[in-house]
Amino acid sequence: MEYINQTKLWYLQSIGIQTYEKRFEVLETPQSSIEITWDALQQQVQNCTKCPLHETRTQTVFGVGSRTAELVFVGEAPGQQEDLKGEPFVGRAGQLLDQMLLAIGLKREQVYIANILKCRPPNKRDHQPAEQACCPPYLLQQLKLLQPKVIVALGRISAQYLLKSNLSLSRLRNQKHIYSEAEIPLLVTYHPAYLLRRPSDKAKAWADLLKIKALL
To answer: Which of 45, 91, 135, 188 could make a disulfide contact with 159, Cβ separation 3.0–4.6 Å?
Structure first.
């Protein structure tokens, strides 16, 4: 059979007909499509040295809560208390967030809480573009593992990142957004730290909480 095929190929080429040999390529599975476990992802974050923040952190702040949570809260970056304890939202802002959850019948253990950045920017400075480019893939992987029913962006920075928007927080609030191809409802509300500085806006935050509860 192989001889006949070779003869046929020679004949076609001799009369000027160009032939092509079909080749089958083995395609490698892209790294992004490989399933990763929670423990493996947390280990990656703990060992991360992609940006200069690893030089000044006490420890990374991975995330906390139920890994089967239907509701996820996303903040901007860890603060000093979070850096020391390795858990997001543990200072005064965290206590207020706990109270906000209780107001709609939820406990911290029933939701998942994370930040865009996993390391604390020193001296309360804003994070730099290089830092923002390195860290978010970890958050995106967390959301992929969780597959929540609702995502809540806490504050302007988190909302702008998740929605790829430059609009102000006031423009992004009071709207039901959709996060990514997964079509997960996303709501925007005030960061608890902001509410500690501006208690007058707690009534607006309460209205946001009622919308979150309705979605669940």
So the answer is: 188
